[in-house]
Amino acid sequence: MELILDPSFQALRAIPSLAWVPLLLLWLGIDEAPKLVLIAIGAFFPVYMGTVSGIRGVDRKLIEVAQLYRLRRPALAYRVLLPAALPSLLTGLRNGLSLAWMFMVAAELIAASKGLGYLLSDGRETSRADIVLAAIVLLAVLGKISDRLMIKLESRLLSWRDSFANSVQDLP
After folding, report:
1. Which end of the chain, N or C, is more open, meaning fewer C-beta atoms within 10 Å of its C-beta?
2. What is the pLDDT of residues 24-69, one digit of tens each?
3. What share of the chain is helix, strand, coil (3-state, %, to 5)?
4. Residue 78 to residues 31, 50, 61, 63, 73, Cα–Cα distance (Å)
5. Is the pTM of this model over 0.90?
6. pLDDT digits (tens, 9 = 90+) for 66-122
């Protein structure tokens, strides 16, 4: 499956995400749909790369033990591959989330009548640095909150891991 999909995904990944904007506007019009698709395109590749990297990095010995226990493919994926690849997958999600914020602003700067990107654009056009700075600060706060939520999710999902990060949290 990877031999079929990966070359196509790598070719699509080489295209700058903002290059899709004219085509998305032509196909989907000027409403929320092209913005959502642009955000999805921008966030997809870090998640994909993290997932693929995590799966490729699974220790072969884990697969061999699972085969000794005669785990079928679904059980192998759920019980071995997913837990072993989860750290990389979550890193990809975290990177994708930060890019999603960036693409949301970019999409709203291009064609929007509301939202933080519109607020940035409107503040620039009306020479209101206070509005621009307020929008930037709000984006920073929202980005930090979403990143902290991802870190909490990561620590909850990976609490089983015996890692340096977990040992640092346990220190007094």
Report:
1. C
2. 888 988 788 888 898 999 899 999 999 999 999 999 999 999 999 9
3. 80, 0, 20
4. 39, 17, 16, 12, 9
5. no
6. 999 998 989 988 999 999 999 999 999 999 999 999 988 888 887 777 888 889 989
Q: 111 in helix, strand or coil?
A: coil
Task: Specify whether the CB–CB gap between 34 and 26 falls below 8 A.
Answer: no
Distance CA 161, CA 128 (A): 49
Within the chain, how many helices (H) and strands (E) appear? Answer: 9, 0
Candidates 53, 17, 21; CA nearest to 34 is 21
Q: Which two tokens stand for residue 71?
A: 């785990």
